[in-house]
Amino acid sequence: MPGNTFGHALRLTTAGESHGPGNVCILDGVPPGIPLTVEDFFEDLARRRPGQSKIVTQRKEPDEPEILSGVFEGKTTGTSLAILIRNADQRSKDYSEIKDLYRPGHADHSFDAKYGGRDYRGGGRSSARETNVRVAAGVVAKKILAEAFGARVVAYVKSVGEIEAHVPDPAAVTLAQVETLPDGEPNVVRCPDPEAAAAMVELIDSMRKDQDSVGGTAEIVATNVPAGLGEPVFDKIKADLAKALFSLPAVTGVEYGSGFSAARMRGSEHNDLFQPHPDGPPKIGAASNRHGGMLGGITSGQPIVLRCAIKPTSSLPREQATVNRAGEAATISTKGRHDPCLLPRFIPMAEAMVALTLADHYLRWRGQCGAAAG
Amino acid sequence: MPGNTFGHALRLTTAGESHGPGNVCILDGVPPGIPLTVEDFFEDLARRRPGQSKIVTQRKEPDEPEILSGVFEGKTTGTSLAILIRNADQRSKDYSEIKDLYRPGHADHSFDAKYGGRDYRGGGRSSARETNVRVAAGVVAKKILAEAFGARVVAYVKSVGEIEAHVPDPAAVTLAQVETLPDGEPNVVRCPDPEAAAAMVELIDSMRKDQDSVGGTAEIVATNVPAGLGEPVFDKIKADLAKALFSLPAVTGVEYGSGFSAARMRGSEHNDLFQPHPDGPPKIGAASNRHGGMLGGITSGQPIVLRCAIKPTSSLPREQATVNRAGEAATISTKGRHDPCLLPRFIPMAEAMVALTLADHYLRWRGQCGAAAG
Amino acid sequence: MPGNTFGHALRLTTAGESHGPGNVCILDGVPPGIPLTVEDFFEDLARRRPGQSKIVTQRKEPDEPEILSGVFEGKTTGTSLAILIRNADQRSKDYSEIKDLYRPGHADHSFDAKYGGRDYRGGGRSSARETNVRVAAGVVAKKILAEAFGARVVAYVKSVGEIEAHVPDPAAVTLAQVETLPDGEPNVVRCPDPEAAAAMVELIDSMRKDQDSVGGTAEIVATNVPAGLGEPVFDKIKADLAKALFSLPAVTGVEYGSGFSAARMRGSEHNDLFQPHPDGPPKIGAASNRHGGMLGGITSGQPIVLRCAIKPTSSLPREQATVNRAGEAATISTKGRHDPCLLPRFIPMAEAMVALTLADHYLRWRGQCGAAAG
Amino acid sequence: MPGNTFGHALRLTTAGESHGPGNVCILDGVPPGIPLTVEDFFEDLARRRPGQSKIVTQRKEPDEPEILSGVFEGKTTGTSLAILIRNADQRSKDYSEIKDLYRPGHADHSFDAKYGGRDYRGGGRSSARETNVRVAAGVVAKKILAEAFGARVVAYVKSVGEIEAHVPDPAAVTLAQVETLPDGEPNVVRCPDPEAAAAMVELIDSMRKDQDSVGGTAEIVATNVPAGLGEPVFDKIKADLAKALFSLPAVTGVEYGSGFSAARMRGSEHNDLFQPHPDGPPKIGAASNRHGGMLGGITSGQPIVLRCAIKPTSSLPREQATVNRAGEAATISTKGRHDPCLLPRFIPMAEAMVALTLADHYLRWRGQCGAAAG
Signal peptide: which range, if any (chains A, B, C, D) (predicted)? Predict the structure, then answer.
């Protein structure tokens, strides 16, 4: 079973390498009649794109999507939707010298072990470039969720290195806060706490100057998702969301709600006590949301709150020890242009994967349980 | 798409509720010719079973598995393997009074929202009882991995509440250490650090007496897994392992290798530098294993190291505030017999899910890349 | 990818051999709230069962189904539904002598080639005994279709050997006609043309006396299925129905509507001309139904009409030439009790597979296109 | 579950409409290291292409494939392989007048019923144009089979209308015979019996002149496929091959081996008697091949022989009665350029689907049973 497909009722299949002709995705199972134009992809693709600001990589990737199928007269048709994003700024000469070297923190050796060879130009299939079509597909998923429930998915940077943002109410964070600072300037680091954001920019910039990189955490929040999405056993909504986030490059940990802090707590302090909901049943309220909007693998109606840890960029311009394909000790310094911190550009990717997962479960639930439930 | 199936080349489908006739699984795709008898299931089922020691629930569940198909003359046939474990000690009277109450921390309300009703006897499908057939299936997966690579999967309790075990080399922990203390007594908490184990037992026992519960973390290690398992994009091995662990009840976080600590690190301190391997190429070594045995979604040949956070048991004998199905405020105290800490019995479940995931990816890799790779 | 699962939104997974403990199925994705008791399975299981009449095999199989999960208080819960049917009359001594012989027309050698061995007791996994759980699952699928559309699926014997039934309007055939003759006697051959039925019984009986067997064709009709089920490309409804029927033992051909006769026709005589429907749009009528209720892979609203060819039973009590496992020439005569014609017992199997396929596509369509469509 | 994916271990996902920018496929699971260039697609695409001869449609479609990913330095990498074929000669003005009419024999109304609308330009997603990427993917499947077993798949026209070819040994038919007549001229109808071929050409040409169309049958033969491919129950090789062929447009019937003629036969005349194989065990021979190379859902080692019926082209230039979207009676005559007989261009499509199915089962078998089996 090959591994380039994600989802079941809403199913995304992708292909493409960083230095080939481009990346393409086929999103299958899209409900018919959803308004969609190529312009709808521009905003999120721009958020993911390299070269947006001084703290991200300066590679130029125009990321001009083309809808190849599945849209007719401005609406989805219900048949498979294909999106092609051609590669432009390939500069494969940057990578030719690492053809026989295994970059630390990368999958070069793992690819050779798996396939007996690899496309060594800039990571090939394992380059984060493949995420551009995920982000495009995520735009469609966001539309499905918005139309069905008025649901929205917003992600933001929670920490960079030791700098932690103060976000009193995750469910209240808006896309505007993530993208724009109170003074109207672009929020290049995508952290809704302006003070922390400023400190993060400074830290990332110092990393770049120091030929180093730094990790961080992102928080992803989905609001207005009704109770009832997810499956009780294997396809728990928390499990599918975790898979979605871990399928992104550089993610080393995922938690939801109380997450790892739950391991230190007592049941009597951890349980979120239910309480009557202002709208009355079948809705119920909760005094707190340590459960992150998911119980027993199924959404509870509370905001879904996830966090993930992102490792520091592995590609460094400084010299590092490694081995070559012959198994001999060697040194390497990555000449390509890389982000000193992956977090700012990770945000739209995380939103896309969370939206795709929730939209998939929405369609699965509608198929099994019909229109009456929810 | 229903959600009771896990895996692709090795595919586990399960059914069963805590208070119905029993749980059954169909494990499909098992290679033919693997020696297997019903006795092979006994050890891991005993490790998962309630009533093993004073620190776990005192429910009696005999967990006697029956192989319904897929084994002939002591070996797997290659056709679908079904295992049935009947329920015995059902005591459904314990649960009838909660029929119209939503237990805090449980999926009762989420089930009603999803399906318009639920089997209210002891959690029904969302009871952890369903994991017994996962553990049985995991035994087969462990055999596949052992035969293919001499690989083994061992899990253990890393922390309970604030008590953290000291485990200098995760890859060196043995099943014997997890199950038996140096003095030959059973290691009821399944922590390989004897001093921490003693403190954990004490803490869990105090929770029980206090009608409370406590969370913790587990660490899972797979050794002798070759480089090359996993897929570069969606079905990254880390993603599928995270889904596997998050599909287990009460898991609130998963990390691998450096995990969340990576978020605080610099690239220059985080990267594991490759070095020549004593066996020579195609194997390569690494000076450290902060990458937890996985790079770019593919195993690296280093030990696979995962951790997960388990929340404190939600069912508490003490009174808690909640609402009923009519949406009115109410109180509840769970009368059923529950574990004050889920960790000791979680260990074999985690091993099973990790083994199933790795065996699945092994067969997928063998299908695509054939015998020569790996 | 193992091959013991059928369907996507409604997904049937089975296990079991003819001479093991029994057969079990897990039907996943069943909508919640459908009334279901174990008695609902009795009628179709009785139609499939051996020993019903003198023209079928005299093996005794009680076929007592047990619902293991997925039903609570008389209704489906929406979680996975498991049904177990234990084997009773196994008589494995009948088969021990063919352990090292390859029966003509059977998969004995193919199993050895695939798996390196086989369960040689009565066909093991390739025995038609596995179809009992398919028939049970089909009962649930029929309920889903009846509840959704008032749709029903009826199959009947169209021909045995050279004897062809006259069925002027396939869509008008009732279950009562298939099961009972005009004189109130059981219609043991399940052909709705009483004259043909009598001749078929005579022919089959003569085959039995002659230690021989005979083939035939079955026709399957689904009525009240709305336009809109199926997918335009790979999962065409005709393709999934053909797979469903070909997945049954002994099926050597499948056609729908005009079928193979279309190959001899001109377009001007083959096209079914649309005409206004009495109910008005969106429904449309058709002057004829050579398209068998399916156009471009999607149902048209006309009755779905399929036919399949069933080969004569391969197991014969007379002596036949073959080879043994050592590759040497040998002779064999099958001592087990076998049907001289498979058609009468094939009917409920065909209905089950067609119902499962249609119910699957109904849930898939509801998931993608929602309640408004159809 | 969307329906634009075919296969499991070798998985083809497609998108595209007849009058959109183009068709694209992602073929996932391709073994690494297979030599592949864009030129490899030319021959089969040319066989499928319109405008090859006077008996097929005169539409001009250049069918220039572009490999977007999955090939590096002339070999497959093992990552997902994407192929794009842009549409060129779209002439959508031909179709605008049928926007509100339902063409007899087409899925126009079924699409409206399913999706609430459709791309009315030339069939949109249900146009046979989508098969061009299937044919391209089939080229890769043929390479996999050739490399693994020296297996090959050849299809040819067996009958057109009442004209039936005489093909004494299906397994001996070569691609050269299918493509070229004994006199060196192109075999435009793709029938290996030259006399029948000439009569077929004449018949098809007379249909064209008569503004009519005609059906026919195709035979597909796969040789050198070893015993052991396929699954005993649902994913029988005959079931998956039937689904593959029925997924192609205009197929109304599929049979294998003795097919529908088996329904008229006795077991004693139908059974193929096994006999020692010249190579010795584990191979065995058979005195005849009425079983078409498949027994119990698994290949037997004999040539695989399938036939399918193709209905006459539904689009006719002559006037036909129908209804419009408002449900009113109307007439229609299709102005687009269409084949008077679909068979000649169907041949490469059938080969592609059969090759994809067999290659999928080969990889599935290698995954489960490993290198030793077969």
Answer: none
Tell me whether the omega of the peptide bond preceding residue D282 falls within 30 degrees of 0, making it cis.
Answer: yes
Question: CB distance from D263 to chain B under 8 Å?
Answer: no
Question: Which residues does A198 contact at the CB level (< 8 Å), separation at least 6?
Answer: none
Please tell me if residue C75 touches chain B, with a CB cutoff of 8 Å: yes
Q: Residue B168: helix, strand or coil by DSSP? A: coil
Q: C-alpha distances in angstroms, B130 versus A233, B30, C373, D314?
A: 8, 21, 37, 53
Q: Tell me the nearest-neighbour CA distance from C251 into chain A, angstroms.
A: 28
Decide: residue A108, CB within 10 A, 0-12 exposed, 13-18 middle, 19+ buried.
buried
Q: B211 phi and psi, to 5 degrees?
A: 55, 35
Q: Which residues in chain D touch residue C109, judged by CB atoms under 8 angstroms apart? A: 227, 274, 284, 295, 300
- Judge whether A1 is closer than 8 Å to chain C, CB to CB: yes
Question: What is the per-residue pLDDT across C100-152, written as a single tens digit (0 to 9) for each?
Answer: 999 999 999 999 999 999 888 878 899 999 999 999 999 999 999 999 999 99
The DSSP bridge pattern shows strands A65-69 and A81-86 to be: antiparallel
pLDDT, position B374: 38
Cβ count near A267 (within 10 Å): 26
Lowest mean pLDDT among B49-53, B238-242, D262-266: B49-53
**Rounded-to-integer distance, Cα D140 and Cα D30, Å:** 8
Rounded Cα distance between C234 and D138, Å, is 14
Residues of chain A with C-beta less than 8 angstroms from the C-beta of D1:
8-9, 11, 29
Q: State the residue for tokens 């660490």.
A: B219
Say whether residue C99 is in contact with chain B using an 8 A CB cutoff: no
CB A371 within 8 A of CB C369: no
Quote the crossing angle between the two packed helices C343-369 and D108-115, to the nearest 10°.
60
Helix (H, G, I), strand (E, B) or coil at A265: coil
Q: Which two tokens stand for residue B100?
A: 């119209």
C33 touches chain B (CB under 8 A): yes
- What spatial distance separates the first Cα and last Cα of chain C, rounded to whole Å? 33
In the stretch 121-180 of chain D, residues with CB closer than 8 A to chain A read 124-125
**What chains are in contact with D, requiring at least 3 Cβ pairs below 8 Å?**
A, B, C
Q: What is the mean pLDDT of chain A?
A: 93
For domain D5-257+292-369, the CATH class is alpha beta
Segments of B35-108 assigned E as strands: 65-69, 71-72, 75-76, 81-86
Nearest-neighbour CA in chain D from A254: distance (Å): 26
Asked if A78 is an interface residue toward chain D (Cβ–Cβ < 8 A), one would say yes
Domain ranges of chain A: 5-257+292-369
pLDDT in tens, A157-204: 999 999 999 999 999 999 999 999 999 999 999 999 999 999 999 999
Q: Do residue C109 and residue D311 have CB atoms under 8 angstroms apart?
A: no
What pLDDT, in 10s, does the model give residues B180-201? Answer: 999 999 999 999 999 999 999 9
Chain C residues within an 8 Å CB radius of B68 = 15-16, 20-24, 84
Exposed (0-12), middle (13-18) or buried (19+): which is D319, by Cβ within 10 Å?
exposed
Q: What is the pLDDT of residue B50?
A: 84
Distance CA C340, CA B125 (A): 45
Chain A residue with the nearest C-alpha to that of C366: A367
B337 is annotated as contributing to ligand binding: yes
Could you list the residues of C known to form a binding site, using ranges.
48, 54, 125-127, 296, 311-315, 337
Q: Is B276 on the interface with C (CB under 8 A)?
A: no
Question: Residues 2..31 of B with a Cβ closer than 8 Å to C: which?
Answer: 2-5, 8-11, 13-17, 20-24, 26, 28-29
Q: Is the pLDDT of residue A89 over 70?
A: no
- C264: helix, strand or coil: helix
